[in-house]
Every structure is written in structure tokens, then in C-alpha cells.
Automatic annotation (TrEMBL):
GO terms for cellular component: sulfurtransferase complex. It is found in: Cytoplasm. The keyword Repeat does not apply. Coiled coil: none annotated. Belongs to the DsrE/TusD family. Its main location: cytoplasm. GO terms for biological process: tRNA wobble position uridine thiolation. It comes from Pseudomonas brassicacearum subsp. neoaurantiaca. This is Sulfurtransferase complex subunit TusD. InterPro entries: DsrEFH-like, Sulphur_relay_DsrE/F-like, Sulphur_relay_TusD/DsrE. The gene is tusD.
Length: 130
């Protein structure tokens, strides 16, 4: 089965951990992940500027490692990211900001990427959100 996974909650939310565990289990079971799409507060899971307390799991780091290890298509919604100050180097330069907080393996892109993933996948699985 081919999954598109959308994550709407920040790294400290339980649904972010559940999304990662689901994605790991899906690949372990032989399924395919068409795309991971981080939207709304989910964009914080891709930020390398998030500092996780020592007694908590570093989910942004775990997501980066997972996406890199499995060479997945990890997309961060550009509008949601800009609204939250989560920028890659190109956007930081464009908006004259001093620092970028998103780098490979993540790509900033629009909602069209989520739409395309939904069309390619057998199932869309969403985590978090209101």
C-alpha cells in the first residue's frame, strides 16, 4: 500500500511521535510512503532550530534521520513555514532574515505537493490538527 502522511502538530505534541512510529511501521511492513507533508505547526518538526529538553525525545532530529535514511520525500508547506519563521537558506535570503532553520532532507513547497501525493497514494493518513 502507498501512503501519503500529513503532519499538522508541533514536535512536542504526542501526534508527532505517533506519526513517526506509524511511518516507521509502514516501511517495516513493506509499504511505501509517497510523501511526508508537514503543514501548520507540523513545520516545526523539520526545523533544525528546535531545542528539545534533555528529558524529551528530539523528534525533529528523529524525523531528519528517518527521512534521510529512507530517502523519503519530505515536504514542508512553504506558506505555513514562512508564517512561523521556519525558513530555508533561499527564503532567509529573500526575506532578509539572518538564519535558515530548514535544510536537507526537507524541501519547502506548496499545498500542490500534498494534492499530488494524495493522488498517487492509496491512503492519506493525517496526524494532529484541530
Amino acid at each position: 500500500m502507498k501512503f501519503a502522511i500529513a503532519l499538522f502538530s508541533a514536535a512536542h505534541a504526542p501526534s508527532s511521535r505517533r506519526a513517526l512510529l506509524f511511518a516507521q511501521a509502514a516501511l517495516a511492513a513493506g509499504h511505501e510512503i509517497v510523501r511526508l507533508f508537514f503543514y501548520q505547526d507540523g513545520v516545526y518538526n523539520a526545523a533544525n532550530s528546535v531545542v528539545t529538553p534533555q528529558d524529551e525525545q528530539d523528534l525533529p532530529q528523529q524525523w531528519r534521520a528517518f527521512v534521510s535514511e529512507h530517502q523519503l520525500d519530505g515536504v514542508v508547506c512553504i506558506a505555513a513555514a514562512l508564517r512561523r519563521g521556519v525558513l530555508n537558506a533561499e527564503e532567509a535570503q529573500r526575506y532578509q532574515r539572518s538564519a535558515a532553520s530548514v535544510e536537507a532532507p526537507w524541501a519547502l513547497s506548496g499545498l500542490g505537493q500534498l494534492h499530488d501525493a494524495i493522488q498517487d497514494a492509496d491512503r492519506l493518513i493525517c496526524f494532529g490538527g484541530a
